[in-house]
Amino acid sequence: MKDMNQLNENQAFKMVINAADLAESQDDLEAVETYVSDALRQVHLQSDIFAVSSRNALQAEDKGIDQLKQSIQQFVDVESKSILEQQMIHQLQQMDRSYVEMITEFETNKADISRRQQRLTDYKDKQRLQHQLIDATLQHTDNEVEEQVYHLNARLKLQLLDDVKSVFNSQMTQNSDFNEEKKVSTRVYLDQIHQRLFLEQSLITERIKKYFNKQLTEQIAPIVQQLADLHVIINPQFNFESANIEQPLLHIDFNDMLNALPKQLTKRKILNPNGQRDIHESICQSTLGLLQPQMGLLRQQLELYVKQMAVEAESQFESFEANIQTQINDLLAFDLDTTLINQLKDKHQQLKTILY
Description:
Layout: H1 2-7, H2 9-12, E1 14-17, H3 26-42, E2 48-51, H4 54-59, H5 63-108, H6 110-123, H7 131-167, H8 178-229, H9 254-260, H10 267-270, H11 273-332, H12 338-355
Parallel strand pairs: 1-2
GO molecular function: GTP binding; GTPase activity
Organism: Staphylococcus aureus
Subcellular location: Membrane
């Protein structure tokens, strides 16, 4: 799947919800799927969602696993070929446009050809894709990391409050041992928020990857256009390795959370609406406080990932640069005359038959 991902990330992206067998009801499972779908939509990721049970799959079979296998096989057999075909068509269309421009220039304006040849001579053996483009992209993306972590904190202030309310409420008083109930509720609460936090971590990482790619593409766009005006055609598609951030970074230790519960969390106060509201706010703030060191760790890991992508971009720049210089040398060695123009016209007609 790694090579397939490099073809088209959006179309090869599959979102998997594991341990679906632990859902207490179909409504609970659908609620998780809805939440994941909304989260993906917010970051403009389109993906099929598969609720699977790895435990069921190991014991017998699992419908979600079977559907995921079918989807992957469909991509391998059909969709990947369509993506390659679209890329080839795009490149052929660029070639055809260049042929038409060269024919038109030769027939209408030989002075432009001379000027273009002079610009090609100026570009020869001079690096067009400067490292400053990567530096600018890295700086923009580092700023985006700060923004993403800031907004995550803001979102969690609202989201955590809902989780707190769903766990720490009057139902806790049904247990005669309230201290034991606090432990049980704390464990349930952490299980809930850890799933949410890991999803947020995964989405932010993917968001940063897409942001870096988009920024770098925008940085080089003017140069790509300048080269295209000289019939030097490059179609840079950046392929970056996925971040090696597989472990949940936003994690709270059970004992730390238990010890952070407010002292006013008592049977009497949890039954009082005003007291319950204060308890909820206190637990929410304590949770955010416990998460801040992990937020810093997430920021550091994302910044390291940005630097990793910058190194990969530099390597890919070298490949693009070699392609540019090869085309420049070929164009400078290419002496247009009537015979060659007629050959270009023939090629143009052949491409028209294929493309249009």
